[in-house]
Automatic annotation (TrEMBL):
GO function terms (MF aspect): 2 iron, 2 sulfur cluster binding; metal ion binding; oxidoreductase activity
Alphabetic keyword roster: 2Fe-2S, Iron, Iron-sulfur, Metal-binding, Oxidoreductase
Region (Disordered): 166-231
Superkingdom of source: Bacteria
Domain 2Fe-2S ferredoxin-type: residue ranges: 2-78
Protein name in the entry: 2Fe-2S iron-sulfur cluster binding domain-containing protein
Composition bias, Low complexity: 172-182, 199-210
Species this protein is from: Noviherbaspirillum galbum
Length: 418
Protein backbone atom coordinates (compact mmCIF):
# COMPACT_ATOMS: atom_id res chain seq x y z
CA UNK A 1 0.00 0.00 0.00
CA UNK A 2 1.12 3.54 -0.74
CA UNK A 3 -0.20 6.85 0.51
CA UNK A 4 -1.65 9.01 -2.29
CA UNK A 5 -2.18 12.76 -1.87
CA UNK A 6 -4.08 14.46 -4.71
CA UNK A 7 -6.53 17.29 -5.33
CA UNK A 8 -9.94 16.01 -6.37
CA UNK A 9 -12.56 18.56 -7.39
CA UNK A 10 -10.72 21.26 -5.44
CA UNK A 11 -10.40 19.20 -2.26
CA UNK A 12 -7.20 17.70 -0.85
CA UNK A 13 -7.42 13.94 -0.47
CA UNK A 14 -5.00 11.48 1.10
CA UNK A 15 -5.67 7.74 0.94
CA UNK A 16 -3.78 4.47 0.96
CA UNK A 17 -3.93 2.37 -2.21
CA UNK A 18 -2.06 -0.42 -3.91
CA UNK A 19 0.35 0.65 -6.68
CA UNK A 20 -1.72 -1.30 -9.23
CA UNK A 21 -4.95 0.61 -8.41
CA UNK A 22 -6.26 2.58 -11.34
CA UNK A 23 -7.49 6.13 -10.93
CA UNK A 24 -11.05 5.15 -11.89
CA UNK A 25 -11.22 2.50 -9.16
CA UNK A 26 -9.62 4.89 -6.68
CA UNK A 27 -12.22 7.57 -7.39
CA UNK A 28 -15.16 5.18 -7.17
CA UNK A 29 -14.10 2.83 -4.36
CA UNK A 30 -12.09 5.12 -2.10
CA UNK A 31 -13.75 8.50 -2.68
CA UNK A 32 -17.23 7.22 -3.67
CA UNK A 33 -17.31 9.52 -6.71
CA UNK A 34 -19.39 7.12 -8.79
CA UNK A 35 -20.10 9.65 -11.54
CA UNK A 36 -16.94 8.33 -13.19
CA UNK A 37 -18.18 5.26 -15.07
CA UNK A 38 -16.04 2.25 -15.92
CA UNK A 39 -16.90 0.52 -19.17
CA UNK A 40 -14.32 -1.42 -21.17
CA UNK A 41 -11.47 -0.82 -18.66
CA UNK A 42 -9.05 -0.90 -21.60
CA UNK A 43 -9.01 2.80 -22.52
CA UNK A 44 -11.29 2.28 -25.52
CA UNK A 45 -14.84 3.43 -24.69
CA UNK A 46 -14.05 6.77 -22.99
CA UNK A 47 -16.79 6.47 -20.33
CA UNK A 48 -14.20 6.92 -17.56
CA UNK A 49 -12.71 10.15 -18.95
CA UNK A 50 -11.74 12.73 -16.30
CA UNK A 51 -9.45 15.76 -16.24
CA UNK A 52 -5.93 15.41 -14.92
CA UNK A 53 -4.33 18.85 -14.54
CA UNK A 54 -6.84 20.11 -17.08
CA UNK A 55 -6.23 17.37 -19.66
CA UNK A 56 -8.75 14.61 -20.51
CA UNK A 57 -7.39 11.17 -19.57
CA UNK A 58 -8.72 7.63 -19.32
CA UNK A 59 -8.97 6.96 -15.60
CA UNK A 60 -9.23 3.20 -16.20
CA UNK A 61 -5.65 2.98 -17.53
CA UNK A 62 -4.07 5.69 -15.37
CA UNK A 63 -2.51 4.53 -12.10
CA UNK A 64 -3.68 6.47 -9.06
CA UNK A 65 -0.16 6.65 -7.55
CA UNK A 66 1.06 8.38 -10.72
CA UNK A 67 -1.38 11.23 -10.06
CA UNK A 68 0.10 12.22 -6.71
CA UNK A 69 0.25 16.00 -6.30
CA UNK A 70 -1.95 16.64 -9.32
CA UNK A 71 -5.49 18.00 -9.78
CA UNK A 72 -8.24 15.59 -10.80
CA UNK A 73 -11.65 16.84 -11.92
CA UNK A 74 -14.57 14.41 -12.19
CA UNK A 75 -18.12 15.02 -13.41
CA UNK A 76 -19.07 15.97 -9.84
CA UNK A 77 -16.63 18.89 -9.90
CA UNK A 78 -18.11 21.07 -12.67
CA UNK A 79 -20.94 22.83 -10.81
CA UNK A 80 -19.36 26.28 -11.16
CA UNK A 81 -17.78 25.68 -14.56
CA UNK A 82 -19.09 28.12 -17.24
CA UNK A 83 -18.61 25.65 -20.08
CA UNK A 84 -20.59 22.94 -18.32
CA UNK A 85 -23.31 25.46 -17.56
CA UNK A 86 -23.83 25.67 -21.33
CA UNK A 87 -23.14 22.05 -22.24
CA UNK A 88 -25.56 20.38 -19.82
CA UNK A 89 -28.73 22.15 -21.03
CA UNK A 90 -27.52 21.80 -24.63
CA UNK A 91 -27.24 18.03 -24.17
CA UNK A 92 -30.82 18.01 -22.91
CA UNK A 93 -32.16 20.18 -25.74
CA UNK A 94 -30.56 18.09 -28.46
CA UNK A 95 -31.34 14.67 -26.95
CA UNK A 96 -27.63 14.00 -26.56
CA UNK A 97 -28.09 11.48 -23.76
CA UNK A 98 -30.28 8.49 -23.15
CA UNK A 99 -29.07 5.83 -20.71
CA UNK A 100 -26.45 8.29 -19.45
CA UNK A 101 -23.61 5.80 -19.04
CA UNK A 102 -21.27 7.52 -21.50
CA UNK A 103 -22.44 11.03 -20.59
CA UNK A 104 -19.82 11.95 -17.93
CA UNK A 105 -17.00 11.11 -20.32
CA UNK A 106 -18.82 12.74 -23.25
CA UNK A 107 -19.30 15.98 -21.32
CA UNK A 108 -15.65 16.03 -20.26
CA UNK A 109 -14.49 15.55 -23.85
CA UNK A 110 -17.06 18.07 -25.12
CA UNK A 111 -15.76 20.67 -22.65
CA UNK A 112 -12.24 20.12 -23.94
CA UNK A 113 -13.44 20.59 -27.55
CA UNK A 114 -15.23 23.86 -26.71
CA UNK A 115 -12.14 25.28 -25.01
CA UNK A 116 -9.46 23.96 -27.34
CA UNK A 117 -11.10 24.22 -30.78
CA UNK A 118 -13.42 27.30 -30.89
CA UNK A 119 -13.90 27.02 -34.66
CA UNK A 120 -14.51 23.25 -34.79
CA UNK A 121 -16.91 22.13 -37.53
CA UNK A 122 -18.99 18.95 -37.50
CA UNK A 123 -16.25 16.80 -39.06
CA UNK A 124 -13.67 17.97 -36.49
CA UNK A 125 -16.09 17.43 -33.59
CA UNK A 126 -16.74 13.87 -34.77
CA UNK A 127 -13.02 13.22 -34.98
CA UNK A 128 -12.44 14.58 -31.45
CA UNK A 129 -15.29 12.40 -30.15
CA UNK A 130 -13.91 9.26 -31.81
CA UNK A 131 -12.53 8.02 -28.49
CA UNK A 132 -15.92 8.17 -26.73
CA UNK A 133 -18.44 5.46 -27.57
CA UNK A 134 -22.21 5.75 -27.18
CA UNK A 135 -24.59 2.80 -27.67
CA UNK A 136 -27.78 4.88 -27.54
CA UNK A 137 -27.94 8.25 -29.25
CA UNK A 138 -26.45 7.82 -32.70
CA UNK A 139 -24.01 10.69 -31.87
CA UNK A 140 -25.85 13.33 -33.91
CA UNK A 141 -27.45 14.88 -30.84
CA UNK A 142 -24.08 15.06 -29.09
CA UNK A 143 -22.49 16.74 -32.11
CA UNK A 144 -25.42 19.18 -32.34
CA UNK A 145 -25.11 20.07 -28.65
CA UNK A 146 -21.40 20.90 -28.99
CA UNK A 147 -22.05 22.94 -32.13
CA UNK A 148 -24.80 24.77 -30.24
CA UNK A 149 -22.44 25.77 -27.42
CA UNK A 150 -19.70 26.82 -29.84
CA UNK A 151 -22.20 29.01 -31.70
CA UNK A 152 -23.47 30.52 -28.44
CA UNK A 153 -19.93 31.49 -27.55
CA UNK A 154 -19.41 33.07 -30.97
CA UNK A 155 -22.66 35.03 -30.79
CA UNK A 156 -22.47 36.05 -27.12
CA UNK A 157 -18.96 35.44 -25.79
CA UNK A 158 -18.79 34.58 -22.10
CA UNK A 159 -15.69 36.31 -20.63
CA UNK A 160 -15.16 33.40 -18.24
CA UNK A 161 -14.93 30.92 -21.11
CA UNK A 162 -12.62 33.22 -23.08
CA UNK A 163 -10.41 33.45 -19.99
CA UNK A 164 -10.28 29.65 -19.74
CA UNK A 165 -9.28 29.47 -23.40
CA UNK A 166 -6.41 31.88 -22.82
CA UNK A 167 -5.07 30.02 -19.80
CA UNK A 168 -1.96 27.91 -20.51
CA UNK A 169 -2.83 24.25 -20.57
CA UNK A 170 -0.95 22.26 -17.95
CA UNK A 171 1.65 19.83 -19.14
CA UNK A 172 0.44 16.33 -18.21
CA UNK A 173 2.61 13.75 -16.51
CA UNK A 174 3.88 10.72 -18.47
CA UNK A 175 1.02 8.68 -17.00
CA UNK A 176 -1.51 11.25 -18.17
CA UNK A 177 0.13 11.44 -21.59
CA UNK A 178 -0.05 7.68 -21.98
CA UNK A 179 -3.71 7.64 -21.02
CA UNK A 180 -4.62 10.59 -23.22
CA UNK A 181 -2.80 9.33 -26.31
CA UNK A 182 -3.87 5.69 -26.09
CA UNK A 183 -5.73 5.13 -29.37
CA UNK A 184 -8.16 2.25 -29.93
CA UNK A 185 -8.72 0.65 -33.30
CA UNK A 186 -10.98 2.72 -35.52
CA UNK A 187 -13.42 2.25 -38.35
CA UNK A 188 -14.84 4.83 -40.74
CA UNK A 189 -18.39 6.00 -40.15
CA UNK A 190 -20.45 7.84 -42.77
CA UNK A 191 -21.32 11.43 -41.92
CA UNK A 192 -24.54 13.03 -43.16
CA UNK A 193 -22.56 14.73 -45.94
CA UNK A 194 -21.24 11.39 -47.16
CA UNK A 195 -17.75 11.89 -45.70
CA UNK A 196 -16.17 9.34 -43.43
CA UNK A 197 -15.34 9.69 -39.79
CA UNK A 198 -13.32 7.62 -37.38
CA UNK A 199 -14.61 5.99 -34.25
CA UNK A 200 -13.37 3.08 -32.13
CA UNK A 201 -14.96 -0.23 -32.88
CA UNK A 202 -14.73 -3.94 -32.17
CA UNK A 203 -15.74 -6.20 -35.02
CA UNK A 204 -18.75 -8.39 -34.28
CA UNK A 205 -18.69 -12.03 -35.29
CA UNK A 206 -20.65 -12.76 -38.44
CA UNK A 207 -23.11 -15.61 -38.78
CA UNK A 208 -25.80 -16.02 -41.41
CA UNK A 209 -29.14 -17.49 -40.51
CA UNK A 210 -30.73 -20.02 -42.82
CA UNK A 211 -34.02 -18.12 -42.83
CA UNK A 212 -35.86 -15.22 -41.23
CA UNK A 213 -33.60 -12.32 -40.32
CA UNK A 214 -30.06 -11.56 -39.17
CA UNK A 215 -29.34 -8.35 -37.29
CA UNK A 216 -26.01 -6.62 -36.66
CA UNK A 217 -25.35 -6.96 -32.93
CA UNK A 218 -22.65 -7.22 -30.28
CA UNK A 219 -20.53 -10.31 -29.54
CA UNK A 220 -22.64 -10.83 -26.41
CA UNK A 221 -25.77 -11.00 -28.56
CA UNK A 222 -24.09 -13.57 -30.78
CA UNK A 223 -23.37 -15.79 -27.80
CA UNK A 224 -27.08 -15.68 -26.94
CA UNK A 225 -28.03 -17.07 -30.35
CA UNK A 226 -28.68 -13.90 -32.35
CA UNK A 227 -27.22 -14.20 -35.83
CA UNK A 228 -25.02 -11.18 -36.45
CA UNK A 229 -23.20 -9.49 -39.26
CA UNK A 230 -21.54 -6.08 -39.58
CA UNK A 231 -20.60 -4.03 -42.62
CA UNK A 232 -18.79 -0.75 -42.98
CA UNK A 233 -21.94 1.12 -44.08
CA UNK A 234 -23.93 0.30 -40.96
CA UNK A 235 -26.22 -2.39 -39.56
CA UNK A 236 -27.13 -5.36 -41.73
CA UNK A 237 -30.31 -7.45 -41.66
CA UNK A 238 -31.06 -10.44 -43.90
CA UNK A 239 -34.59 -11.72 -44.54
CA UNK A 240 -36.71 -13.46 -47.18
CA UNK A 241 -40.29 -14.14 -48.24
CA UNK A 242 -41.89 -16.59 -50.67
CA UNK A 243 -44.37 -15.71 -53.43
CA UNK A 244 -46.55 -18.34 -55.19
CA UNK A 245 -45.83 -16.98 -58.68
CA UNK A 246 -43.20 -17.71 -61.38
CA UNK A 247 -39.82 -16.02 -61.09
CA UNK A 248 -40.15 -13.93 -64.27
CA UNK A 249 -43.49 -12.49 -63.22
CA UNK A 250 -42.22 -11.59 -59.74
CA UNK A 251 -39.09 -10.02 -61.25
CA UNK A 252 -41.18 -7.85 -63.54
CA UNK A 253 -43.34 -6.70 -60.63
CA UNK A 254 -40.36 -5.94 -58.37
CA UNK A 255 -39.02 -3.54 -61.00
CA UNK A 256 -42.13 -1.36 -60.79
CA UNK A 257 -41.27 1.16 -58.06
CA UNK A 258 -44.81 2.57 -57.65
CA UNK A 259 -46.12 -0.99 -57.32
CA UNK A 260 -43.52 -1.80 -54.69
CA UNK A 261 -44.39 1.37 -52.75
CA UNK A 262 -48.07 0.43 -52.82
CA UNK A 263 -47.20 -2.74 -50.87
CA UNK A 264 -45.67 -0.78 -48.01
CA UNK A 265 -48.09 1.32 -45.88
CA UNK A 266 -46.83 4.85 -45.36
CA UNK A 267 -44.70 4.89 -48.51
CA UNK A 268 -45.48 7.43 -51.23
CA UNK A 269 -43.71 8.30 -54.48
CA UNK A 270 -43.86 11.97 -55.48
CA UNK A 271 -41.89 11.81 -58.72
CA UNK A 272 -40.09 9.27 -60.88
CA UNK A 273 -37.49 9.68 -63.59
CA UNK A 274 -36.40 6.34 -65.00
CA UNK A 275 -34.98 4.31 -62.14
CA UNK A 276 -34.80 7.33 -59.80
CA UNK A 277 -37.64 8.31 -57.48
CA UNK A 278 -38.38 10.92 -54.85
CA UNK A 279 -40.84 10.31 -52.08
CA UNK A 280 -41.35 9.68 -48.38
CA UNK A 281 -42.19 7.00 -45.86
CA UNK A 282 -44.07 7.62 -42.61
CA UNK A 283 -43.26 5.60 -39.48
CA UNK A 284 -44.90 5.74 -36.04
CA UNK A 285 -43.04 4.87 -32.80
CA UNK A 286 -46.00 4.89 -30.44
CA UNK A 287 -46.56 8.61 -29.66
CA UNK A 288 -43.56 9.56 -31.80
CA UNK A 289 -43.95 9.82 -35.56
CA UNK A 290 -41.47 10.47 -38.34
CA UNK A 291 -41.72 11.06 -42.07
CA UNK A 292 -38.49 10.48 -43.95
CA UNK A 293 -38.40 12.39 -47.25
CA UNK A 294 -35.64 11.62 -49.72
CA UNK A 295 -34.60 9.99 -52.95
CA UNK A 296 -33.74 6.48 -54.11
CA UNK A 297 -32.28 4.79 -57.17
CA UNK A 298 -32.95 1.24 -58.37
CA UNK A 299 -30.17 -0.76 -60.03
CA UNK A 300 -31.25 -4.05 -61.66
CA UNK A 301 -29.32 -6.99 -63.08
CA UNK A 302 -31.67 -9.02 -65.28
CA UNK A 303 -29.15 -11.82 -65.79
CA UNK A 304 -29.01 -12.87 -62.13
CA UNK A 305 -32.38 -11.40 -61.07
CA UNK A 306 -30.75 -9.15 -58.53
CA UNK A 307 -31.46 -5.48 -57.73
CA UNK A 308 -30.27 -2.83 -55.30
CA UNK A 309 -32.37 0.10 -54.10
CA UNK A 310 -30.07 2.84 -52.77
CA UNK A 311 -31.66 5.68 -50.85
CA UNK A 312 -31.31 8.38 -48.23
CA UNK A 313 -33.75 10.66 -46.43
CA UNK A 314 -34.31 12.98 -43.50
CA UNK A 315 -37.12 13.47 -41.01
CA UNK A 316 -38.10 17.16 -41.00
CA UNK A 317 -39.14 17.14 -37.33
CA UNK A 318 -36.37 15.26 -35.51
CA UNK A 319 -33.69 15.99 -38.16
CA UNK A 320 -32.77 12.30 -38.02
CA UNK A 321 -31.09 11.00 -41.17
CA UNK A 322 -31.32 7.56 -42.72
CA UNK A 323 -29.36 6.05 -45.56
CA UNK A 324 -28.88 2.54 -46.81
CA UNK A 325 -29.16 -0.11 -49.50
CA UNK A 326 -31.87 -2.74 -49.91
CA UNK A 327 -30.71 -5.63 -52.05
CA UNK A 328 -33.16 -8.28 -53.23
CA UNK A 329 -32.37 -11.38 -55.24
CA UNK A 330 -34.94 -13.77 -56.67
CA UNK A 331 -34.61 -17.54 -56.46
CA UNK A 332 -36.90 -20.03 -58.21
CA UNK A 333 -38.13 -22.60 -55.69
CA UNK A 334 -40.27 -24.30 -58.31
CA UNK A 335 -41.93 -23.42 -61.60
CA UNK A 336 -44.70 -21.58 -59.75
CA UNK A 337 -42.95 -20.41 -56.58
CA UNK A 338 -40.28 -17.76 -56.04
CA UNK A 339 -38.21 -16.81 -53.00
CA UNK A 340 -37.17 -13.17 -52.57
CA UNK A 341 -33.99 -12.87 -50.50
CA UNK A 342 -33.61 -9.42 -48.95
CA UNK A 343 -30.47 -7.83 -47.52
CA UNK A 344 -30.66 -4.43 -45.83
CA UNK A 345 -27.66 -2.31 -44.90
CA UNK A 346 -28.67 0.88 -43.11
CA UNK A 347 -27.29 3.73 -41.00
CA UNK A 348 -29.50 5.96 -38.85
CA UNK A 349 -28.27 9.19 -37.28
CA UNK A 350 -30.01 11.53 -34.89
CA UNK A 351 -32.54 11.11 -32.07
CA UNK A 352 -34.34 8.22 -33.77
CA UNK A 353 -31.11 6.21 -33.96
CA UNK A 354 -31.91 4.84 -30.49
CA UNK A 355 -34.64 2.69 -32.04
CA UNK A 356 -32.20 0.96 -34.39
CA UNK A 357 -30.36 -0.80 -31.57
CA UNK A 358 -33.23 -2.67 -29.92
CA UNK A 359 -33.12 -6.45 -29.66
CA UNK A 360 -36.64 -6.45 -31.15
CA UNK A 361 -35.44 -4.94 -34.45
CA UNK A 362 -35.03 -8.44 -35.84
CA UNK A 363 -38.65 -9.25 -35.02
CA UNK A 364 -39.90 -5.95 -36.45
CA UNK A 365 -38.10 -6.52 -39.75
CA UNK A 366 -39.30 -10.11 -39.90
CA UNK A 367 -42.91 -8.93 -39.52
CA UNK A 368 -42.45 -6.07 -42.01
CA UNK A 369 -40.90 -8.34 -44.64
CA UNK A 370 -43.60 -10.97 -44.12
CA UNK A 371 -46.37 -8.36 -44.46
CA UNK A 372 -44.68 -6.90 -47.53
CA UNK A 373 -44.53 -10.37 -49.08
CA UNK A 374 -48.25 -10.88 -48.45
CA UNK A 375 -49.06 -7.58 -50.17
CA UNK A 376 -46.86 -8.50 -53.16
CA UNK A 377 -48.79 -11.76 -53.44
CA UNK A 378 -52.11 -9.90 -53.29
CA UNK A 379 -51.04 -7.47 -56.02
CA UNK A 380 -49.82 -10.27 -58.30
CA UNK A 381 -53.09 -12.11 -57.68
CA UNK A 382 -55.04 -9.03 -58.78
CA UNK A 383 -56.67 -8.45 -55.39
CA UNK A 384 -57.70 -5.02 -54.18
CA UNK A 385 -55.85 -3.38 -51.24
CA UNK A 386 -56.90 -4.77 -47.86
CA UNK A 387 -58.67 -2.63 -45.29
CA UNK A 388 -55.58 -2.39 -43.10
CA UNK A 389 -53.69 -0.61 -45.89
CA UNK A 390 -55.66 2.55 -45.18
CA UNK A 391 -53.33 3.19 -42.24
CA UNK A 392 -51.13 6.19 -43.10
CA UNK A 393 -47.92 4.76 -41.72
CA UNK A 394 -46.04 1.77 -40.42
CA UNK A 395 -46.83 1.37 -36.71
CA UNK A 396 -43.88 -0.16 -34.90
CA UNK A 397 -45.81 0.09 -31.65
CA UNK A 398 -48.43 -2.26 -33.05
CA UNK A 399 -45.74 -4.60 -34.30
CA UNK A 400 -44.04 -4.53 -30.89
CA UNK A 401 -47.29 -5.52 -29.15
CA UNK A 402 -47.82 -8.35 -31.61
CA UNK A 403 -44.23 -9.58 -31.21
CA UNK A 404 -44.39 -9.46 -27.41
CA UNK A 405 -47.78 -11.20 -27.35
CA UNK A 406 -46.46 -13.99 -29.58
CA UNK A 407 -43.46 -14.41 -27.31
CA UNK A 408 -45.62 -14.60 -24.18
CA UNK A 409 -47.87 -17.19 -25.83
CA UNK A 410 -44.77 -19.14 -26.80
CA UNK A 411 -43.38 -19.11 -23.25
CA UNK A 412 -46.60 -20.35 -21.66
CA UNK A 413 -47.49 -22.67 -24.50
CA UNK A 414 -44.36 -24.76 -24.29
CA UNK A 415 -44.72 -28.36 -23.23
CA UNK A 416 -42.95 -29.25 -19.96
CA UNK A 417 -39.69 -31.07 -20.37
CA UNK A 418 -39.77 -34.78 -19.48
Amino acid sequence: MESISIQVNGRSVCRDAEPRTHLGDFLRDELHLTGTHLGCEHGVCGACTVLLDGQPVRSCITFAVACAGQEVTTIEGYDGDPVMQLLRPAFTRHHALQCGYCTPGMLTTARDIVLRIPDADEARIRLELSGNLCRCTGYQGIVNAIQDVLQQQRDNPDPRIEELRQMPRSRPTPAATAAATAQPSVVRLPTPQGKTQERPSSPAPANRSSGGTAESASPADSQQGTATKAKGKGNTIDAFFDVPFPLERVWQFMGDLPAIASCLPGATIESQEGEKVKGSIAIKFGPMSAAFAGAARLERDDAVKRAVLRGAGQDSLSKSRAQGDITYELQAISAENTRVNVNMVYALQGPLAQFSRSGLVKDFVSRMVADFGKQVTRRLDGQAPSATESEPSISLAGMMWSVLWNRVRGWFGRSPKP
